[in-house]
Fold:
Amino acid sequence: MELKNKVAVITGGAIRVGRAITLGLAQAGCHVFIHYGRSAQPALATEAEAGGYGVETAVYRADLADAEATQTIIPAALARFGRVDILINNAAIFPDEDSFQGTDLALWEVLFAINLRAPFLLSRAFAAHIPPEGQGKIINVNDGRIRRPAPDHFVYRFTKGSLWQMTEMLALELAPRITVNQVALGAILPPPGQGWDYLQHIADQRIPLRRYGNAEMVAEAVNYLLRQDFLTGVTIPIEGGEYL
Ligand SMILES: NC(=O)c1ccc[n+]([C@@H]2O[C@H](COP(=O)([O-])OP(=O)(O)OC[C@H]3O[C@@H](n4cnc5c(N)ncnc54)[C@H](OP(=O)(O)O)[C@@H]3O)[C@@H](O)[C@H]2O)c1
Structure:
C-alpha cells in the first residue's frame, strides 16, 4: 500500500511511541487522526508537528476504558476525512501494581478494557466500513515479553497475549480485504519516571545487542508493515533479541 494520501487512526497517538508512529505516518504523506485520552496539549503539539509534513490532521479525545466512547472513534474519523485506511492500535496501560495478588477487580477490568477490548471494538468498526473491494491495514502494538512467561505485569500479559492471538485470528477473519500485523516491543522507552539509565541497565543485563531501541524504530517498522501487501498475521519483534 502506498501511504501517501491514506488516512490513519492512531490510538494514543499524542505521546511517546504513539507520537513517533503518528509523525512517521505523516512524514510518509498519510493524513492522521490522532486519538488521545488525557494528553490534550501533547495531542495539539503532535498535530502541529504532523501538519508540518503537509498532511491533514485531526485530534480526537476518547476514554478507551469506556466502550461507548471507544466506539465513537472510527465514526468520528470517517466524519472528518470521509475514509479510514489504516488503524494503529497503540494505546495501552502498564500498571506497576499489576501482580498476581495485587491486581484488584477494578484494575483487571480497566486493563482488559483499554488493552484488549478497545483494539477489538476499533478493529470491528474499522472492518465494517471497508467495502468488499476495498483495502485496509491494521497494526497492533504489542509487547515482546509475551514470548517469555514471567510473573511481572500479570494481567497486562493476559491482555497482550490475547492481543497477539487476536492479531492472528483477525488476519484470517479479515482477509483478503484487510491485513493485520503487529510489532512486539522490548526496551524502547523507559516507563514514566525512569531515565535512559534504566533501559541501559536492562540492555546490559539481558539484551543480546546490549543496547535499547527508540520510538522511531517502531515507526519505521509500522510503515514497513503498512507498505506490504503480502504480509498478514506477522509480528516484527523490536527488542534486540531480548526474548529469543
Ligand atoms: N515503551 C516501551 O518500551 C514499550 C515496551 C513494550 C510494549 N510497549 C507498547 O507500546 C505501546 C505504547 O507504549 P508507550 O510506552 O508509548 O505507552 P504510554 O507512554 O504508557 O502511553 C500510553 C498511551 O495510551 C493512551 N491511553 C492509555 N489509557 C488510555 C485511556 N483510558 N483512554 C485513551 N487513551 C489511553 C495514552 O493516551 P493519553 O496520554 O492521551 O491518555 C498514551 O498515548 C503500548 O501498547 C505498550 O504496551 C511499549
In short: Residues 12, 14-18, 36-39, 63-65, 90-94, 114, 141, 143, 185, 187-189 surround NAP (CB under 6 Å). The domain at 7-238 is CATH 3.40.50.720 (Rossmann fold). The two ends are 30 Å apart (CA to CA).
